[in-house]
């Protein structure tokens, strides 16, 4: 508890009104430190869990990748998964377990980020983002699931271009495609957070639905640029696979903010009318 200059304990003021309470720089840094430590804890815990989850996940993802490739690969093309050096199996397991841990820990890291931002908001603004954490996890799961559904078709499309080359073999580095899939899952999970960011910014008044609707062309172009940067392969197919659903979710989030704001205005008007009626009754 803070202590006054006279040595008496000074009551800690509430976070409910940021105009009444302003945390000192030290308190902000301490809060940031705690949030970073928790995020690192989740990352390390996910990494440890990923070390044990890697063998079955590697087998599952590898089968999901190689199935479409083997079905579409031209006749006569030799297909093998290879290691080039003796150290590669261990390094691959280390990298894959870290990626698995990062995918597992990502929603919890996002929760820590929102938890750091929340105390600096007003009570009504914090109320608007109280569902951020569960919806963040839900959107991440939606992005990861969507990625898992569309990637087999993408690999079939990629493999079809082997028809243009004669007398070739396909020697694929062990884990390279699995690592690619995990990066895609993480990219889709992160990309699907965009509607939540738009909704929160709209609820706290930094963006209005009218502004977003008026600038939807620029926003859509920005989504396509983000998809191009975030997707690890940078090819048009995977960019479209991310950009199209994100654009749809972006539009849905705009109208969700609009409906929510209209409800808030109607509620505020009803409260004001009730107050006027009470004052009229007193008169």
Question: What can you see in these coordinates?
Answer:
With 283 residues, the protein is mainly α. It contains nine helices and two strands; from the N terminus they run H-E-H-H-H-E-H-H-H-H-H. Strands 1-2 form a two-stranded parallel ribbon. Helix 2 packs parallel to helix 5 (176-191). Residues 1-15 have low confidence and may be disordered.
Characteristic terms for this protein:
single chain, two-stranded parallel ribbon
SS class: mainly alpha
Please outline the major beta sheet: 2 strands, parallel
Q: Would you report the number of β strands?
A: 2
Rg: 25 Å
* Overall structural domain count: 2
Unreliable stretches, pLDDT < 50, 5 or more residues?
1-15
Summarize model confidence as the mean pLDDT. 77
Give the termini separation: 47 Å
Spatial ordering of strands, largest sheet: 1-2
Write the topology of this structure.
Blueprint: H1 25-72, E1 78-82, H2 88-117, H3 123-128, H4 132-159, E2 169-173, H5 176-191, H6 194-203, H7 209-214, H8 216-230, H9 236-282
Helix pairs in contact: 1-2, 1-4, 2-4, 2-5, 4-5, 4-9, 6-9, 8-9
């Amino acid at each position: 508890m803070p202590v006054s200059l006279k040595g008496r304990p000074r009551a800690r003021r509430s976070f409910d009104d940021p105009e009444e309470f302003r945390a000192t720089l030290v308190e902000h840094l301490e809060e940031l430190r705690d949030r970073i430590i928790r995020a690192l804890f989740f990352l390390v815990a996910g990494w440890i869990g990923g070390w044990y989850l890697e063998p079955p996940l590697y087998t599952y993802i590898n089968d999901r990748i190689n199935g479409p490739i083997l079905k579409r690969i031209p006749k006569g093309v030799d297909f093998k998964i290879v290691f080039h050096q003796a150290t590669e199996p261990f390094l691959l397991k280390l990298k894959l377990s870290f990626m698995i841990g990062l995918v597992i820990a990502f929603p919890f890291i996002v929760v820590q980020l929102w938890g750091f931002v929340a105390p600096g908001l007003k009570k009504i603004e914090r109320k608007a983002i109280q569902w951020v954490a569960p919806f963040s996890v839900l959107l991440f799961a939606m992005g990861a699931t969507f990625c898992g559904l569309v990637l087999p078709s993408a690999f079939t499309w990629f493999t079809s271009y082997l028809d243009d080359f004669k007398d070739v073999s396909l020697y694929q580095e062990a884990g390279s495609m699995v690592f690619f899939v995990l990066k895609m899952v993480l990219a889709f999970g992160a990309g699907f957070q965009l509607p939540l960011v738009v909704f929160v910014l709209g609820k706290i008044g930094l963006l209005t639905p009218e502004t977003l609707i008026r600038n939807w062309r620029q926003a859509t172009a920005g989504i396509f640029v983000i998809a191009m940067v975030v997707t690890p392969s940078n090819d048009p197919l995977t960019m479209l696979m991310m950009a199209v659903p994100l654009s749809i979710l972006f539009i849905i989030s705009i109208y969700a903010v609009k409906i929510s704001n209209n409800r808030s205005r109607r509620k505020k008007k009803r409260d004001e009318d009730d107050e006027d009626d009470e004052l009229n009754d007193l008169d």
